[in-house]
Amino acid sequence: MTHRTGAEQLVHTLLDNKVDVCFANPGTSEMHFVAALDKVGAMRCVLGLHETVVTGAADGYYRMADKPAATLLHLGPGLANGLSNLHNAKKARSGIVNIVGDHSAEHLKLDAPLTSDIKALAGVVSQWVHTSQSASDIATDGAQAVRQACGRPGAIATLILPADVAWSELAAEGSAAVAPQAPKAAAEPAGAAGAHDMARIVQALREDPEHTLILCGDRATRADCTSLVGRIVAATGCAARAEFYGARLERGAGRVALLRLPYAVAPSLAILAKFSTVVLVGAKEPVAFFAYPDKPGRLTAPGCRFLTLSTPEDCPRDALRELCGALGAQSLPAALLARHATDAPAQGPLDSESIGRVLGATLPDNAIVVDEAISTGRGFDALTLHAAPHDWLTGCGGSIGFALPAAVGAAIAAPGRRVVALEGDGSGMYTLQSLWSMAREQLDVTVLIFANRTYGILHGELAAVGAGAPGARAQDMLNLDRPQIDWSGLAESMGVPAIKVADIESLSKALQASYRRHGPMLLEVLL
Amino acid sequence: MTHRTGAEQLVHTLLDNKVDVCFANPGTSEMHFVAALDKVGAMRCVLGLHETVVTGAADGYYRMADKPAATLLHLGPGLANGLSNLHNAKKARSGIVNIVGDHSAEHLKLDAPLTSDIKALAGVVSQWVHTSQSASDIATDGAQAVRQACGRPGAIATLILPADVAWSELAAEGSAAVAPQAPKAAAEPAGAAGAHDMARIVQALREDPEHTLILCGDRATRADCTSLVGRIVAATGCAARAEFYGARLERGAGRVALLRLPYAVAPSLAILAKFSTVVLVGAKEPVAFFAYPDKPGRLTAPGCRFLTLSTPEDCPRDALRELCGALGAQSLPAALLARHATDAPAQGPLDSESIGRVLGATLPDNAIVVDEAISTGRGFDALTLHAAPHDWLTGCGGSIGFALPAAVGAAIAAPGRRVVALEGDGSGMYTLQSLWSMAREQLDVTVLIFANRTYGILHGELAAVGAGAPGARAQDMLNLDRPQIDWSGLAESMGVPAIKVADIESLSKALQASYRRHGPMLLEVLL
């Protein structure tokens, strides 16, 4: 009789803990885990052709599933390749069971070429790092990793799995799966209502609502929370906003309007200038993405006071309910957005505004928008307010190449919903391998590539940092027009049908055609 | 009067120290460096559309130029994206001046989204890490980084450049470039002849040559060294080999035959079994790439003795000359390989052997072969021995996605020489963005993609680790055939002309056509 291997036990433990999707790019040291997939069954494995697809997909998955997926990465270099999207996932407070293979203990002593300091790399992007020491520890270690990833907020839990631990058989008496404590569903934040500064918050909202802003982040941008925010706004007349970056904003018609703070420093300063009190609901104090020589890093007015209603550890819904209660706003109707899209142009040239309007007019019910249209999409927030109800996911860590992998993960987490990935051509080239995974899994993803053939944002940034007008050499570092990239050709070469659109009418038609069909489609939006 | 910015000073310092190529993917925090490129001039900047292209190109550049290039990476995530090819470069002992932007000191306090622990990431792949503290330090810091990178062996010298250091102007009195000590040319190893175990080496070669192997690594695989190894072999009858992985092997007709140790454990064990003494010339004790449950990690026979003629810190040529002298072999003629290629088939099916033969028969003089054909290319070493003289570069760190970026760097380091990149479809997908840089720079690179539509090596590895025959789920983690990737389409979409070849005749014709034209060309070799 043969017993389970450590790898088989790990797959069992993951499944026992409701982790049943694994984004993977395995190598030799992970072959026993791969073999275990056959024996154990039930784990959905999705192959990415680069680890940044794997980790970005796990981020998108968590945001929509409210529970972690596992990853499977090959040693230090495999982890290294996945780091930047793990960085993004960490900043989004996504939970991931991040499994990284390693050499056997004996082989590590030999300093083979692939040897590297996995723990040091993992530590930069993980809240929890642990190396399994033996097959008999795997059930406990795996369950602990899931528990960490499922916390509130979510966490990157990196479990390092040496090859010899994976291939060793468990002793007979240890072969039963340890029944780990079932993790709390991550959808339900574990903490009690924070209400850290409740009395002062109530006072500010009652006495000076005009200069008080409610700033929502993390889970407070879900509809169950924004509806409460809407009541508070109705009761007091205060303002409300979401952070610029958001793991998942539930928005659109029938919901409360909650515009995001803008990316650029000047408009953020203008918006925030009048507020003397900012109430943080899962949000952080707003700061600029980058430093500029002549601009402040803090976006609020000097002397602005911050009051914390809830942190990401808390349940924002409970905190907002308590605040509603204190304000007598429980039964007030919030102002809900009407659905109207009559302002979308039927034809004309493509620009940021016309694209945003068409997007808002055509978005299907319950779409999931994954937004990395850093330049072109700057105005989409307001232009899509009245679209059909949808979720809006943005990169949270600023590392580009987020949207296409996250779209893969979101589509797997939410079958039956259309995912719309808004992507720049510069960012898209970071993780174009994602298209292959979309084709392989026949995911319902509409990809819009905004082909402006430049790192559009950097032209503005070069000016913003006061570096002057770019000459030929500097231009060469910003522009992608030599040679031009044929995004339709790239997509079709990876099995994704594609179409080039050069005006509003064809964009609108192509969008609607993509929404009707099963599987992915790429629209190359020629700007 | 305005003074130089820190960024301008850094560009000056790099140029003063003969670092005149910069592989880059800059972001906002690097915009002053980008602006400085216009003002200072003379720096050749090559844009990569993902940082793994940037760092891999710097590796390939160093191997052919024998001096470092600079990189320019955007904060922690930009560095993270480049880490796996920095890992490869470190294992190849390549020197790189690795410049990573960071937020300004003030902005770091705000914990903006892109903030991460750059030092921790850099430390894993760098021999030297330093953060510039002010613009007035930049000249010294930059010169020190170059000096570190130019050491013997080469080193990854990471210089972290905060945005405020880059944008600050130097004080008037500090604006002159510090004249740093010119680094030694890296082509000339700095150390004296090592000759660590000279007496015992001479004794072994004289008394038991049949059981003595000279194992060459690092710079000992250059022609000036292999010609000396050939004399020692002629004088004593000992055996000689190169390590499996090699930064740069100068080989082919007119040179000494120096076969590499094979990748797989069993044939390596068979080759090494008879040797009781291995003489290391810049090489390490040979170990398996991976651990396997039932195979040894050390590839030499138990009790094998290792004697060190030179380490990578030493000059192998001096050490080998001294050894020749001790053996009276100075003027013995080494056996040189004749040029013959009559055994190349003119037509027939494509397989590993026929491809290798055609490659050997057609390779132009002084070609640079960058080899990451992990499955298909397993036999190319022997099949190309008699080709025209050429350099052969392999990945040294085992992280896949090495060849295409390294080909970019090699082509820039060695204009006028044809670069031939041998790449698997699995590995190629890791860094396919390299094709765009090849087109942009019109580099003379012939890319062969061996399209077997699988991670071919992993099928063997799955069996080798004893994980059994793969079922459907495991197969899905190894195979790239759903959907098939159209590599010709990918290449053409990024501006690289491409052709599919399905038999030997068309392969041979396409190879020769690519060698005659200027600029890159991709051959999709359908297996």
Automatic annotation (TrEMBL), chains A, B:
The keyword Nucleus does not apply. GO terms for biological process: small molecule metabolic process. Coiled coil: none annotated. Keywords: Thiamine pyrophosphate. It comes from the Bacteria. GO terms for molecular function: acetolactate synthase activity; flavin adenine dinucleotide binding; magnesium ion binding; thiamine pyrophosphate binding. Residues 4-109 form the Thiamine pyrophosphate enzyme N-terminal TPP-binding domain. Gene3D superfamilies: 3.40.50.970. The keyword Cell membrane does not apply. Signal peptide: none annotated. NCBIfam families: PRK07586.1 (NF005760). PANTHER family: ACETOLACTATE SYNTHASE LARGE SUBUNIT ILVX-RELATED (PTHR18968:SF86), THIAMINE PYROPHOSPHATE ENZYMES (PTHR18968). Belongs to the TPP enzyme family. This is Acetolactate synthase large subunit.
